[in-house]
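Dear colleague,

Thank you for sharing your sequence with our group. We've completed the structure prediction you requested, and as agreed, I am returning the results in plain text so they can be pasted directly into your records. Please verify that the sequence below matches your submission; if there's any discrepancy, let me know and we will rerun it promptly.
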Amino acid sequence: MSIGPVEFLTIAFPGNRFDGSIVPELERLVSSGTVRIIDLVFVSKDAEGNITTYEYEDLEGDAAAFGHLDGEAGDLISDEDIELAAADLDLESSAVFLLWEDLWAAPFAEAVRAADGVIVAGGRIPHEAVQAALEAAAG
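Please find the predicted structure tokens below.
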């Protein structure tokens, strides 16, 4: 089975203000074939720093909207991954930890592998840095 690039995202919601409003856009990405959810874990940190994790089937309240996403709960996100992601959370915060395949890039990834290409670096440039560079270039 050919697989495209796989990414992880940790999206924090300070003050536990998650309201589910990102789920429809994530559903659109999945249903359009842009990404495939491989694993998803919802994490919360209480006032004492205790971490609680929730899988798809355990989500309640606004977070329950994640449970309706089409994808796999593949148990690929390890306890160590969760600990690392949760370490950056503020007290009384929550986060969703997503692992997804970039289906849109799978044909390119396959072409790179077929050409014996090796990706030696990659990353994401934060939106704020791109915005600042564009503003500096324009002005």
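Summary note from our side: The two ends are 48 Å apart (CA to CA).

Kind regards,
the structure core
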